[in-house]
Write a structure and sequence with these properties.
CATH class of the largest domain in chain A: Mainly Alpha
Distance between the termini of chain B: 41 Å
Number of helices of chain A: 11
Shape of chain A: globular
Structural class of chain B: alpha/beta
CATH topology of the largest domain in chain A: MetI-like fold
Number of domains of chain A: 2
Radius of gyration of chain B: 18 Å
Helix content of chain B: 25-40%
CATH architecture of the largest domain in chain A: Orthogonal Bundle
Order of helices and strands of chain A: HHHHHHHHHHH
Strand order of the largest sheet of chain B: 6-7-8-3-9-10
Distance between the termini of chain A: 57 Å
Oligomer: heterodimer
Largest sheet of chain B: 6 strands, mixed
Number of strands of chain B: 10
Helix content of chain A: over 70%
Strand content of chain B: 25-35%
Shape of chain B: globular
CATH class of one domain in chain B: Alpha Beta
Chain lengths: 294, 258
C-alpha cells in the first residue's frame, strides 16, 4: 500500500498488533486494580456498621466474650504512639544515613558496606525484628512489654525504607544546584541543609509516609513487644499497650459475630488512619512545593 | 573591587587523567578575558580551577599556582569556601534554586552565609538585580519562583545571584550557549557594563562573541584526543583575531580547523 509520494499507510498487521498490545495493557491494569478495589470494598462494607462513636472512644475493658459494643480506642492510641515513636527514631537515622551515602560516601568502602546492610535489613522479616527486640530488650535487658519496645521493633523495619527512598530523592537533586551553591561560597553542610534537602523535601516526605504505612499494619513484631491489653494505656513507656493490627488479629480469632464485626471495623480504621496520614503528607508537600506561585 | 589573577605552571587532573598541562597566564582586572578552543580542550576545567570548583568533582586535583593579587589560592591553609566567596561563577545552564523565589535566589549567597537585616538585604537584592539588568522585568514579582522565568532571564538571575555576594572576579562558563540571540545580546551588554567593576573571565564556543566582548583572548588546544589541553596563544583580542602568531590559532579562528 504505497501512495504516489512513497508515504506508506499503516498496515493491517500493525493495527492489529497495536490493538492487541493495548488490550494487554488494559488487562494488566484491571488485574492490578481488582484486588485493591475488592479489599477496599470488603473492608468498607463489613466495617462501616460498627464505625461509631463508641468504637472510637471506648476500649475493650469489661466487654465480655459475647457482648456487643466495645471499641478500639486503646488500640488506636497505641498504634499512633508506637508509629510516632518509631518515626522519631528511624527518620533522623535514615535521613542522615541517606545524606552520608549521597553527599559524603562517594562510593567508598564504608558507603558500600552501609548500602549492603540496608539491603539486608530491607529483607528482614517483621517477625525477626520483633523477636530481636523481645530477646534483646525484654529478655536480656529485662525491660517490660511496652509501646516503646514495639516502636523499637517497628523502627528497625522502617529504617531501610526511609534510607532507600531518601537516598533516591537526594540523588535526583541536580548537581548543578550543589555547584551553584558552592560557587556562592556556601559551605557543604549549609548547601545540603538549605539547597539539597528543601529540593528533595517533597519526595522524602512521600518516602517517609510509605514507610509509616508499611509499619502501621505490622502485627507480628507487636505481639512480642507491646504484648496485649484490653485497657487504655496512654503511656507508651510503661506496661503493655495495644495496636490496631493486634486488635484486628485478636478480634478476628474470636468465635462471635460481634467480635468479627469489631475486627472489620478495626481494619477499616487502620486504613483510614494511613489514608489520613498520607493526606497530611500531601498537604505538607503541596504547601512546600517549589513551583507554586506565592 | 576587582583583582588580578596570575596563574603559573598549572596542571589539572581527573583521577590519573591529565586534563590541562602547564597553563600560565595573567588575567587583568577590570577587563574581560575570553577562553576559546575546541570541545574537550580544558577551557572549562581551567576556569573551574580558578575558584577551586574543580576539586568538587571526586578524584579531581590541581597542581601549580593561582595567585589572586599575590595570594596563592592553593596554599595549604586556604579555605576553598572563602575563595569561592571572592570568585563567583555563572554556569552554562541557568540553575536558579527551584525551591526559592526570585528574591530568595538573589539573597541566597548572603542568607546562607550569615544574617543581614531585612532592609540591607532588600537593598542588595535590588542593586544586584539592577546590576544584572533584570530589575525592571521582575520587580513586581520578586516572590514568584525563579524557575518560572525565561531561560535568558534565569541566566541574568544567576548573574544577579553571583554579584550579590560582591565577588572580586566573575567566571562565566559558556553563559550564553543555552540562550537565544536576544538574550545573548542582553548578557553581552551586561558583561560590558560589569567589567567596570569586576574581573570577568568567559569561556565561549562562539568566536564572534569572544571578538565582540573580550579585551584579551586565550586559545586552548590539545595535541590529540586523550592528551592534556594547553594554552596555544594569548593576546589582545583584536590582535588574536587579525594577526595571530600561531598557525593553529589562525586555523581555528578562520574555521579551517583540523
Amino acid at each position: 500500500m504505497t501512495t504516489t509520494t512513497g508515504i506508506q499507510h499503516i498496515s493491517a498487521g500493525r493495527r492489529f498488533k497495536d490493538l492487541f498490545v493495548k488490550a494487554l495493557v488494559y488487562l494488566a491494569f484491571a488485574l492490578a486494580v481488582v484486588p485493591l478495589v475488592s479489599v477496599l470494598w470488603l473492608v468498607i462494607s463489613n466495617g462501616v456498621a460498627r464505625l461509631d462513636l463508641e468504637f472510637l472512644t471506648h476500649s475493650m475493658r469489661g466487654i465480655g466474650a459475647r457482648d456487643a459494643g466495645g471499641g478500639a480506642y486503646h488500640a488506636i492510641i497505641g498504634t499512633l504512639e508506637q508509629v510516632l515513636l518509631a518515626s522519631v527514631i528511624s527518620v533522623p537515622i535514615g535521613l542522615f544515613t541517606a545524606i552520608y551515602l549521597v553527599e559524603y560516601g562517594q562510593g567508598g568502602r564504608l558507603s558500600r558496606a552501609i548500602s549492603f546492610f540496608v539491603d539486608v535489613m530491607t529483607g528482614v522479616p517483621s517477625v525477626v525484628a520483633g523477636l530481636f527486640i523481645f530477646a534483646f530488650w525484654i529478655l536480656f535487658l529485662g525491660a517490660q512489654f511496652s509501646g516503646w519496645a514495639g516502636a523499637l521493633a517497628l523502627a528497625i523495619l522502617m529504617m531501610p525504607t526511609v534510607v532507600r527512598s531518601a537516598e533516591e530523592m537526594l540523588r535526583l537533586v541536580p548537581n548543578d544546584l550543589r555547584e551553584a551553591s558552592y560557587a556562592l561560597g556556601v559551605s557543604k553542610w549549609r548547601t545540603i541543609l538549605k539547597v539539597v534537602l528543601p529540593t528533595a523535601f517533597t519526595g522524602i516526605v512521600t518516602g517517609v509516609m510509605l514507610a509509616v504505612a508499611r509499619v502501621a499494619g505490622e502485627t507480628a513484631p507487636l505481639l512480642m513487644t507491646v504484648f496485649f491489653t484490653n485497657s487504655i494505656n496512654n503511656d507508651p513507656f510503661n506496661g503493655p499497650q495495644m495496636g490496631l493490627p493486634l486488635f484486628v488479629f485478636d478480634q478476628a480469632a474470636r468465635p462471635n459475630d460481634t467480635a468479627v464485626d469489631r475486627a472489620w471495623t478495626g481494619a477499616l480504621t487502620l486504613i483510614l488512619i494511613v489514608m489520613l496520614l498520607n493526606l497530611v503528607a500531601r498537604l505538607i508537600a503541596w504547601w512546600r512545593a517549589p513551583a507554586r506561585g506565592r | 573591587m576587582s583583582k588580578q589573577i596570575q596563574v603559573s605552571g598549572l596542571d589539572a587532573y581527573y583521577g590519573s587523567h591529565k586534563a590541562i598541562e602547564d597553563v600560565s597566564m595573567t588575567i587583568e582586572p577590570r577587563s574581560i578575558t575570553a577562553f576559546i578552543g575546541p570541545s574537550g580542550c580544558g577551557k572549562s576545567t581551567f576556569l573551574r580551577t580558578l575558584n577551586r570548583m574543580h576539586e568538587v568533582i571526586p578524584g579531581a586535583r590541581v597542581e601549580g599556582k593561582v595567585l589572586l593579587d599575590g595570594d596563592d589560592l592553593y596554599a595549604p591553609n586556604v579555605e576553598p569556601v572563602s575563595v569561592r566567596r571572592m570568585i563567583g561563577m555563572v554556569f552554562q545552564r541557568p540553575n536558579p534554586f527551584p525551591t526559592m523565589s526570585i528574591y530568595e535566589n538573589v539573597a541566597a549567597g548572603l542568607r546562607l552565609n550569615g544574617r543581614l537585616s531585612k532592609s540591607k538585604l532588600d537593598g542588595i537584592v535590588e542593586e544586584s538585580l539592577k546590576g544584572a539588568n533584570l530589575w525592571n522585568e521582575v520587580k513586581d514579582r520578586l516572590n514568584k519562583p525563579g524557575a518560572g522565568l525565561s531561560g535568558g532571564q534565569q541566566q541574568r538571575l544567576c548573574i544577579a545571584r553571583a554579584i550579590a555576594v560582591k565577588p572580586q572576579v566573575l567566571l562565566m562558563d559558556e553563559p550564553c550557549s543555552a540562550l537565544d540571540p536576544i538574550s545573548t545580546l542582553a548578557i553581552e551588554d551586561l558583561m560590558a557594563k560589569l567589567k567596570d567593576e569586576y574581573t570577568i573571565v568567559i569561556v565561549t564556543h562562539n568566536m564572534q562573541q569572544a571578538a565582540r566582548v573580550s579585551d584579551r583572548t586565550a586559545f586552548f588546544n590539545l595535541a590529540e584526543q586523550g592528551k592534556p589541553g594547553k594554552v596555544i596563544e594569548m593576546d589582545e583580542t583584536s590582535r588574536m583575531f587579525t594577526n595571530p602568531t600561531q598557525k593553529a590559532t589562525e586555523d581555528y579562528i578562520t574555521g579551517r580547523f583540523g
